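Now produce a polypeptide, keeping tokens residue-aligned:
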Amino acid sequence: MILIVLSVVLLLVVGGCACVVWAARGGPPWTRAVATATLAAGELVRASGRSRGNRSGGSDDGPGDGPGDRDP
């Protein structure tokens, strides 16, 4: 069951991305509407990630990871 749900979500994402590209190249009006909805959904997902405190864009240099922090 979960495989079906994930497949549908994947198809929606791929279709939305295709509509964004098609609309950018001057597609029919319905592609612009789908592209707008896709971009808005992407912004909502990105904003929800920020509000939960995800810090995936930070530096990977944590304690002990620098070049001078190695034992001789």
Summary: Residues 30 and 58 are 38 Å apart (CA to CA). The mean pLDDT is 82. DSSP finds two helices and no strands in the chain. Helices lie at 2-24, 29-51.
